Amino acid sequence: MTDILLIIPASIDEFTRHEVPPLGICYIAACLQQKGYTVKILDFVATPMKKDRFMEYLAQEDPKIIGISSLVTIHNNGCRLAKLIKEHNPEIPVIMGGSHATCIVKQVLKTGYIDVVVRFEGELTFTELVEYYLEKYPSSLAEIKGIAFMNGEQITVTAERELIKDLDALPLPARELIDLSTYERAGSIITGRGCVFTCKFCAANYLCGGRYRLRSVDRVIDEMELLYRNYGVEEIFLLDDTFVLNHQRIYEFCDKLITKNLPIQWCCTSRVNPPIPFELLQYMKKAGCRKIGFGVESGNNEILKCISKGITVEMVEQSVLEAHEASLVVTCYFIIGFPEDTDQSVRDTLGFANKLREIGTEECPVYTTFGIMTPLPGTYYWEHAEELGIKFLSQNWDNFKFTEPVIETRNLSKEQLKGYLFETLVVS
């Protein structure tokens, strides 16, 4: 018998499945293990499982509690699994957490298959829930911060839990519970949580309370060394949205990584504002950095202003030029179909992307990647869709793939958006 089964449902997004290990679930698993509970992780993204086999697995493991992760691309499949779990045994507490569930609490609980939603960070909250169900402490769900649950016909949302202040206090993710070889980016690490910026298309600021909390450099490098020595990982992916925000920390990180002399390479993502000094880019290269990604979004300054990105195309071009000069491979990320986008602004974006690609060389290319604007719960665009002229063509989460339009705007039709994306696939 397993105490807790943690599930990552199958993804509808063919482009990102198998890419990154489920670190959030692995952190929760590690916290539960510290308390002495037995935990298993079932990742449908990496290891697909048909219904009959899943029902056999449930009978075999007989978990006391089940947790299900929720992102938009896996949410509906998570609800489908919850239904199967309740059909198998209605007494098993089913808990759902993750960014998407956090933002649509009422919808999740109204399914009738989810007992509790964990809101925002999950490590401490989920652990307390396990103690409530298995140890009968605390004495009521209402005493647990950071959750929502059905109380008769009403939804109870408890007091918000404070964000974890000391991320170093968390155990390292329980990667031993998953098969790292099934993920393209097996060496993924989170060095900090959150984002201080307020881009209108993104929910990161809302989900983290507008803060960027950092792990210590020593703790991060210890984790990198563990991945290399225990799992043979030689390429590390730093997943923070704004890893290079604190330049002093990056110098310290590079210093200590060079001293360690580990035979690994690493890559990261960053904003172009504040700009990364050229000397720091060179030092990152010396410390093993090989690739850097920039969130560009648009090639039109007016659109960049409208979406509250806080950058200009001139800043982008300068950052890409300097990263290329530092011999880093660059990827620029774009979004097509903002509410304010017009045919001309999208043409500006496509042209600008082409200009950036031309900076690259065969040895050190500049890549561009595109997605279609997809408003998500928790974002400004979701909350203000009607006044911005955003028309939803579907609110079925199965259609929220970022590669198919789920909206039309005042200026752009579904057909136009699909056409633009096709053009990027042809030229990229």
Quick summary of this structure?
The mean pLDDT is 95. This protein has 15 helices and 17 strands.
What does this molecule look like?
With about 425 residues, the protein is of the alpha/beta class. It has two domains: about 5-155, Response regulator (Rossmann fold), CATH 3.40.50; about 185-425, Alpha-Beta Barrel (TIM Barrel). About 35% of the residues lie in helices and about 20% in strands. The chain contains 15 helices and 17 strands. The protein has helices at about 25-35, 50-60, 75-90, 100-105, 105-110, 125-135, 205-210, 215-230, 245-260, 280-285, 300-305, 315-325, 345-355, 380-385, 415-425, and strands at about 5-10, 40-45, 65-70, 95, 115-120, 145-150, 155, 190, 190-195, 210-215, 235-240, 265-270, 290-295, 330-335, 365-370, 390, 405-410. A seven-stranded mixed beta sheet has the order 2-1-3-4-5-6-7, with helices on both faces. Strand 3, helix 3 (about 75-90) and strand 4 form a beta-alpha-beta unit. Helix 9 runs parallel beside helix 10 (about 280-285). The longest helix has 15 residues, at about 215-230. It is globular and about 60 Å long.
CA distance, first residue to last residue: 50 Å
Q: How many distinct domains?
A: 2
- CATH top level of the largest domain is Alpha Beta
- Give the neighbour order of strands across the main sheet: 2-1-3-4-5-6-7
Estimate what percentage of residues fall within beta strands.
15-25%
Q: From the coordinates shown, what is the CATH architecture of the largest domain?
A: Alpha-Beta Barrel
Helix content: 25-40%
- Protein structure class: alpha/beta
- Overall body shape: globular
Instruction: Give a quick account of the main beta sheet: strands, pairing sense, barrel closure.
Output: 7 strands, mixed
Q: C-alpha Rg, in Å? A: 22 Å
CATH-wise, what's the superfamily of the largest domain? Aldolase class I
Count of discrete alpha- or pi-helical segments spanning 4 or more residues: 15
* CATH fold call of the largest domain: TIM Barrel
Poorly predicted regions are: none
